[in-house]
Each structure stands twice: as C-alpha cells, then as structure tokens.
C-alpha cells in the first residue's frame, strides 16, 4: 500500500471503496434501492432533487437510479454535516459497516444543478441507467482484478460516456468508487493536470471528451509520473486535493468560454420560462436577446456566430438537445427555477470550496511551543520579509523544521498549508529533479516535467495577492548551486520582477523565460553539526539571511512542558541542569564545539504524547536518542560517552 494511503486526510477512501462494493450488489434490487433512497429523502435535507420529468404531465418521484448518482447523493455542494447524515443513512441501507469519514478532503463535488448522471425521462434512452450500472461493474472488476483485459472497461466507458448528462462527471464517479485507481477529470483537476503537471488530456471521445482508451492513457501517464520522488503529487487523491487547493488562473479564452456559456444559458432559461416550455428556436433567441448580447460585447463583431458556436458547446455539455434545423430543447428546464447560472455553476462539477484559514501570528507560534524570545522571532520574521530567503541553522534538536513551517504561517498571517511546498535536499537531488528535466511520459516518450520549485513559482505568479513558501530541509545536504542552477540569480530580492526573467536550461519553447515572483519565499534548514557536509557556496550564502538557533532550556520551555504534559517543574529543572552541563562539555571539546550541542526538542514530548512516568521517559530518551548521538560524536572516545551518560543520569 502506498504511503499516501495511510494519510489521515484520505481516510475517507476506505468508506467510499466499501460503499461502492456494497452498492454493486444492489444492481438487480433497484426497486428496493430507490424506495429506500426516497424514505431517506423524506427525512433529510438536501435530497429534494429526486423528481423525474416525463415528456408530458407533472414531475414524479424517480423510479430508477444509477450507482454514480447514488454515490453523488452525498457528494454534492452540501454542508459536511448533511453529507455525513446522508452517507450514514445510505450506508445503513446498503449494509455498510465502515464508519462515515470525518473529512472529505480531495473529493470533487457535483454541481447541485447537475447532480444526475442521466437525463430526465422525457429525454433519456430506456437503457441509459443500465449502461451506467454496466460501466460501474466493469470499473470495479478492472480495478480489483489486475489481470482483467482493459478492452471491456474502455468499451463500457465509451458507451457510458455517450449517455446524456454524464459528461466529465463519469470520471468523478469512477474516482469515488476506487480513488486510488481512477483519476477524476473534473474541471479543476483538468486545469491542474495540464497546467501544473504538463500532461495533455487527449479529448478524442464523445462530445469533445476523452475516450476510454485516452482515459486509461492519462491514468498510466500519471501513475508513471507518481514514481518520481520530487513530483508534486504521488496519488490520485493527492492530485485531486492539490487541484482543489490551487487557485489556477484561467486564460482569456477559458474566461470567455465560461462567460459566454453562462450568459447564453441564462437567456435560454429566461426564454423558456417566458414560454413555459423547454422548447425554443435559435430565431426566437436572437429576436429576444441579440441586442442584449451586442450591448454586453460592444467591441465584438462576431456576436451572431458566437451564439451558434456556444449553442453547440451547450449541446456538448448536455444542456441542450438539437431537435431539427434551428430547434432545441433545454434539457434542464424547470418551470419554477429562478436561480441564476454563474460562470462557476455552468460547469459540470461544483466550484472548489473557498478555503478558510485560521489566523496565525507570533502569539500563536509562542503558544504552540516556540521558546525563542519574542524579539528574536520578530527579527527572524523581518529578515524573511526583507531578504525573502532565510536559513535556520543550529545544532540537532533545536526545532528548525518545526519553526520553518510556523514562520511561514506567521508570514502569511494564516494557517494555509496548501501554500507551502516542502522539499528534502540530498546528495542525489539534481537540477532536473528540483527545477525541470526530461522524464518518461505517455507512451514512453520523454516529456519536460516541472520540478517542485518551478511549480511553486507558477502557482505564486498566478496568485500574486497570496504569499507562498518553499521549505527546503537540510539545504546543505545537496549541492545547492547545482540544484538551483540559473534560478540562483533570480532569488535575490531586487531581481524578482518579469524584467529580470531568464531562460531555463530546459525550455518549453524558445521564447520562454522565468522569474521568481516577490510573493514566493524560501526557508531552508541546516544542521551545522553534520561533518560530512561541505560549506555552502558563497554565492548562495549572499542570497540568504542566516538565523542561529540554540538549545532553549529556559523558563519558557519548562513552563510549556509542565503545562502541556504535567511534568513536574522540579524534574524539568533537573533536566535543564543536566543538559546544560552536557552542552558545556560539548562546546568546550576541542574536536566538537557549540554546533554539536543537544537541542531542547529531544526532551520536549511530541504533541499528543502521553507521559505517565516522566523520570522513566527521560531516561529512555537519554539511552535511545541522546547517547547514540554522542557515540557518533565521540566514536573514538567511548569513555567520554560514558562520562556524559553519568552527567545526564546522575549515576
């Protein structure tokens, strides 16, 4: 199992997989399934959309349902509380014992106005729902049995993709059922895959979407890319979460596309409401709204042709059905519908939820366990703001990594982990890993893949109002000058403008140049006790501010540990005395020095750790963490290790 599968953020995946497996067993019990769903809908808010519409007559309760629409009942734009209630009730109906997840991180949602994977009775083929069940069955078989031939899956995919109202949501439904196996290609994920990951989505299938074979090719290309250590994401849930947490700027054409579709659809809707009928003609549309369209776009000379172009787009999106020359049916027509369609809701999937972040300031940092004086924290933060590049250096155990992330939050003024990129430098890391390089892509061909630093640069450029931070762990374990390459020049605070842009060693096109925006900051950490590492390149040093961190065995440390873990202050005073004595020995040792002191992190329990016997806990830390480190320091003087142990344990 991949490491990501153990990530608590994706604990929901197990529930979804078990739910999907149980749901498949109801394929031939659909009358019972639909009856149970309607009983739940009568008790729970957020399920009022289960009314079907015939060609003539009044709406009636849905009589059949596909598996994707069933899972979509708790994957719409609802409150998390409502989603959990609906999921729990459906799980009980299906006999699922897996607990409902607490978090839905990385799960794309349906647009509430497009929550069915099939159309109303008046427009759908009698076999459409059965085709979707077959797709669901083939998808489960293909995902759960590695030796299954892909031809059955791709055939079922192409057939299901032709069902009216399915759209790209088909990939979302596959992702819900088997999130570690199938990628979602909702609109946000498509932008992320193509703009950030540089993987092209071939749209050679039904209505301008990808075919079953193209979908598998994308899946294979992503899985291959996930094996790269410094790739931005390493699983489909990570990809989906990153896509939804990334505010990707849209091109002028993309903005125009959404604006036109929303505007046209609102006018079609108004026309149909006026006629009290879902049927209209292009002539009626122009007669009523051509002047309005022209007034909205006074500089455009192609309004009439654009109307016909976007009528075709709306047909591809299953919003309209073409009947005969100039005649259309508005498929989602409802007589009492008054909600305006926006540029966000015109898409099949729901827009990403607006992220809310808890505020974060120096006071929060201190409360969480930073034992530096407030003035030192303020100085550190100011140097980061001014220099834009900062290195925290100090002996082991001084909390460099812990502090780096929280300094980033202080800089941002809020806890926004999605705006932090963390990278570990090591001897084998290269420019091609960190900046950009050639990697095997789809069908074995080499493809230029952006590394985490270029990804961070692009994201920051796209969102100039927000601050972004790249944290580089153990920056001196690699060869920073070689890893950064020409971007080393661009790191300087006074060169962070488009006018200073340079070409990368590997460019996507001859005219491409890149610069580091002023809203992207770099925080490195450096363990100065590691004798196997060379000193940093002087050119690199000139571009960073350096902050020394020292062991903090002080009143702030004692009071915080006492308050959080109920360790007696007298024992903490003894620990302080003994560690201070040891550090004096290390600092005075001619073969070592102050950089080899032992930091306070060694004797600061981890958040949530239970300390029942504080004395025993301290002795365990000495024997299993501190003494092994001292044995490395004094590898040729074991008597010094024994002497130090006696100091620490007062033997």
TrEMBL record:
Q: Which Gene3D superfamilies match?
A: P-loop containing nucleotide triphosphate hydrolases, Winged helix-like DNA-binding domain superfamily/Winged helix DNA-binding domain
* Keyword Amino-acid biosynthesis recorded: no
Kindly give the CDD domains that the UniProt entry links to this protein. Answer: AAA (cd00009)
Question: A single Gene Ontology molecular function, please?
Answer: ATP hydrolysis activity
The alphabetized UniProt keywords are: Hydrolase
The UniProt record lists the keyword Cell division: no
Q: Where is the AAA+ ATPase domain?
A: 386-550
What EC number(s) would the UniProt record show?
Answer: 3.6.1.15, 3.6.1.3
Identification of the protein by name: AAA family ATPase
Organism of origin is Buttiauxella agrestis ATCC 33320
């Amino acid at each position: 199992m991949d490491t990501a599968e153990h990530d608590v953020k994706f604990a929901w995946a197990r529930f979804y997989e078990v739910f999907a497996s149980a749901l498949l067993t109801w394929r031939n019990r659909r009358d019972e399934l639909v009856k149970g769903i309607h009983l739940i809908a009568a008790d729970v808010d957020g399920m009022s959309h289960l009314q079907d519409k015939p060609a003539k007559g009044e709406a009636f309760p849905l009589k059949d349902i596909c598996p994707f629409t069933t899972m979509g009942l708790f994957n719409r734009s609802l409150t998390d509380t409502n989603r959990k209630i609906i999921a729990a009730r459906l799980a009980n109906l299906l006999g699922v014992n897996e607990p409902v997840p607490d978090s839905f991180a990385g799960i794309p949602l349906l647009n509430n106005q497009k929550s069915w994977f099939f159309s109303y009775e008046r427009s759908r083929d009698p076999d459409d729902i059965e085709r979707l069940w077959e797709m669901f069955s083939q998808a489960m078989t293909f995902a759960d049995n590695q030796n299954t031939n892909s031809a059955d899956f791709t055939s079922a995919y192409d057939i299901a993709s032709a069902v009216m109202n399915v759209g790209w949501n088909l990939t979302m439904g596959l992702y819900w059922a088997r999130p570690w196996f199938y990628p979602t290609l909702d609109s946000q994920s498509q932008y992320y895959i193509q703009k950030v990951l540089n993987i092209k989505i071939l749209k050679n299938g039904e209505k301008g979407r990808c075919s079953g074979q193209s979908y598998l090719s994308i899946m294979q290309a992503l899985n291959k890319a996930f094996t790269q250590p410094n790739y931005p994401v390493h699983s489909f849930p990570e990809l989906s979460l990153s896509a939804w947490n990334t505010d990707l700027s849209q091109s002028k054409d993309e903005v125009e596309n959404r604006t036109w579709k929303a505007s046209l659809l609102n006018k079609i809707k108004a026309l149909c409401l006026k006629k009290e009928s879902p049927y209209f003609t292009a002539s009626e549309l122009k007669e009523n709204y051509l002047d309005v369209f022209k007034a909205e776009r006074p500089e455009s000379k192609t309004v009439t042709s654009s109307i016909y172009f976007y009528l075709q787009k709306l047909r591809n999106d299953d919003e309209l059905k073409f009947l005969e020359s100039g005649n259309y049916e508005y498929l989602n027509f409802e007589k009492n519908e008054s909600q305006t369609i926006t540029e966000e809701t015109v898409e099949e999937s729901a827009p990403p939820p607006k992220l809310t972040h808890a505020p974060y300031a120096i006071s929060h940092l201190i409360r969480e366990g930073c034992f530096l004086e407030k003035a030192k924290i303020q100085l550190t933060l100011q140097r980061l703001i001014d220099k834009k590049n900062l290195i925290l250096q100090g002996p082991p155990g001084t909390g460099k990594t812990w502090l780096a992330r929280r300094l980033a939050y202080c800089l941002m003024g809020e806890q926004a982990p999605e705006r932090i990129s963390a990278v570990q430098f090591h001897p084998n890391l290269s420019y091609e890993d960190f900046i950009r390089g050639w990697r095997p892509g789809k069908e074995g061909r080499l493809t230029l893949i952006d590394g985490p630093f270029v990804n961070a640069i692009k994201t920051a450029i796209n969102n100039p109002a927000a601050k972004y931070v790249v944290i580089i762990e153990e920056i001196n374990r690699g060869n920073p000058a070689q890893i950064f390459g020409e971007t080393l020049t661009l790191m300087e605070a006074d060169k962070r403008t488009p006018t200073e842009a340079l070409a990368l060693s590997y460019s996507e096109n001859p005219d491409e140049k890149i610069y580091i925006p002023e809203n992207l900051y770099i925080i490195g950490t450096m363990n100065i006790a590691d004798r196997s590492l060379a000193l940093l390149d002087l050119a690199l040093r000139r571009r960073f501010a350096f902050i020394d961190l020292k062991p903090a065995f002080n009143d702030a440390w004692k009071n915080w540990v006492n308050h959080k873990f109920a360790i007696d202050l007298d024992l903490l005073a003894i620990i302080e005395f003994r560690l201070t004595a040891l550090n004096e020995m290390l600092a005075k040792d001619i073969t070592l020095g102050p950089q080899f002191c032992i930091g306070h992190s060694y004797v600061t329990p981890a958040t949530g750790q239970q300390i029942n016997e504080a004395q025993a806990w301290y002795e365990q830390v000495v024997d299993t963490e501190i003494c092994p480190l001292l044995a490395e320091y004094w590898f040729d003087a074991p008597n010094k290790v024994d002497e130090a142990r006696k100091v620490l344990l007062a033997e």
